């Protein structure tokens, strides 16, 4: 089968590889589409992701995938042939499984069946976010729902509520998702900070009430102009430590900061002592937000299609990565078999 292989940092290619491994507790999935993650995928390509050393290469890339089940293992009970599923993973001998969504075929693992039998996933490639989506779902939009699930679960973990105020650092797809979903929840005001005027204009289209242009405004002053006592919550979608530390001045007493972004391995981490107890100890749990995101999507309260700026065939994946690197794309979806 064909799959996108990251041989080493900076070396990305579409190769023929062996078929993915499948066992009795797994279902074989024909991958139909997979979007490029502007954060994790780009960091793996650049070799800057902190939990991914030289031993992680070569690997099979991609985790924002959607596909259709073509065969189920004999002990699978959760999935059926024909189901549309998220996050299928290609697990191939000789390659690290960097989630493996940019491959013609992958697998989903039936964790419920394993638990019922008292078995463990062991070395099976698996993820709790391997979940079924509606049969008539738009394939391209479905890939975006993975980010939306992560972000919504993070907001729920921070225990935000309607009427709370939020400052978002950054306006990449994750930052835009925080602004978008915060407004769905009813948070107000939602303020987005960044350096590029075009990014801030886009943030306004995704629901931001106000923006902070870091080239001409300071976060502390601008936020307190908008929200006299400061904001209830801050979420970092940049991984830039000084920006997070500076933003803490805009936090209301008793407020919380969420460190969502993964910090590059060659970058400084936030000085937690400088921020203190304001840091929210939560992480994304996208599986927990699955049903809510599906309902919001079906009702039209979220529109995943507005995140998609480019759709390319899998053979043009290098172009997709360059578009993101050059700030020319919001989300790039690769058509694999849809």
Secondary-structure topology with pairs:
Layout: E1 2-8, E2 11-16, E3 26-35, H1 40-46, E4 59-60, E5 64-72, E6 84-86, E7 96-97, E8 105-109, H2 111-116, E9 132-133, H3 139-157, E10 166-169, H4 173-185, E11 190-194, H5 197-205, E12 210-213, H6 219-226, E13 231-236, H7 241-247, E14 251-259, H8 272-275, H9 290-299, E15 308-313, H10 317-325, E16 331-335
Parallel strand pairs: 4-7, 10-11, 10-13, 11-12, 13-14, 15-16
Antiparallel strand pairs: 1-2, 1-4, 3-5, 3-8, 3-16, 5-6, 6-9
Key structural traits:
single chain; 338 residues; alpha/beta; Quinone Oxidoreductase, Chain A, domain 1; Rossmann fold; 7-stranded mixed beta sheet
Describe the protein in words:
It contains 10 helices and 16 strands. The protein starts with a strand and ends with a strand. The protein is of the alpha/beta class and 338 residues long. A hairpin with a 2-residue loop joins β1 and β2 (11-16). The model has no long low-confidence stretch (mean pLDDT 94). α3 packs across α4 (173-185). The chain folds into 2 domains: 2-144 and 291-335, Alpha-Beta Complex (Quinone Oxidoreductase, Chain A, domain 1), CATH 3.90.180.10; 159-278, Rossmann fold (3-Layer(aba) Sandwich), CATH 3.40.50.720.
